[in-house]
Amino acid sequence: MVRERIDDWMQMAKDLAHAERELQIEHWVYITFEYREDDRSRVVLHKIDMPRRMFDRWQWLVEWRRAKYVCQYPRKGVQVYYCYYDKRTGLQTGFGSLLSCVAAAKAQITKIGRKMEEYVSYMSGNDLFFDPTTDEKLRCAKKKLAQKRAKYAELCALLQSEVAKHRANPGIYKLFIGFRKLGEFTDIPQARKFAEESGETGTFNLIGDRFRDSWYQPKHIGEAGN
To answer: Which domain of life is it from (predicted)?
Structure first.
């Protein structure tokens, strides 16, 4: 049972990797060493842009440079920020991103198609009465496959739209609370002001071109007393 689960996970990872290759996703990581002023404005000390596959080998460099800046600015709370993105489209990757959703949808299509082929092959060799044109399980699988393909087409259309929008306006910042998008802004102060005045409580995420910032906004004192 455990072995089957491990095999399923490994096959899922292979399907996802295959989908990313077909989509020509190029994983890169943009690293910034920075600290925040009292008003949350950024002071960027250094930037590194490298392929994701090189990151593990050069982790020591990141740690060394952070240690250097911590010694240089001991009171500033120097932090390292990582922005994982696709070099070809410029869009961010990672859990919940549009690119990861497209790749996952494509991987699911591959998985269902493979399961259908395995099922037809097995039933054809073990059931004399098997008819692929009338088999109920196969019919349900085909229906599910059609739904997955429709969802994939929808995500691809959205991806093309986002890529075009990103290339036309690379300076746009998108504000989220959790995974819920609140809006798009032309600069960071504008987005932060909107977040502060939104009345929302929780973790805000601000995403831009090779930029990501997160902060928690608690309830205001007046609201907490209600």
So the answer is: Bacteria
Nearest to 44 by CA among 216, 215, 213, 186: 213
Which of the 8 DSSP states describes residue 76? Answer: S
User: Does 10 lie in the same domain as 117?
Assistant: yes
The residue range of the domain holding 40 is 27-86
Pairing of strands 79-86, 42-51: unpaired
Angle at 127 between CA 119 and CA 122, to 5 degrees: 25
Q: Do 214 and 102 fall within a single domain? A: no
- Is the pLDDT at 221 greater than 80? The verdict is no
d(CA 165, CA 163): 5
Task: Check: CB of residue 171 under 8 Å from CB of residue 186.
Answer: yes
Query: Is the same domain home to 82 and 121?
Result: no
Predicted confidence at residue 171, as pLDDT, reads 84
Q: Using alpha carbons, select from 52, 39, 46, 94 the residue that is nearest to residue 67.
A: 46
3-state percent breakdown (helix, strand, coil) of the chain, nearest 5: 50, 25, 25
Report helix, strand or coil for 178: coil
Residues 38 and 73 in one domain: yes
What's the rounded Cα separation, in Å, for the pair 191 and 214?
Answer: 12
With a CB cutoff of 8 Å and minimum separation 6, the contacts of 149 are 109
Count of CB atoms within 10 A of residue 205's CB? Answer: 20
Specify which residues 175 forms β-bridges with. Answer: 183, 206
Distance CA 15, CA 23 (A): 12
What's this model's pTM, rounded to 2 decimal places? 0.75
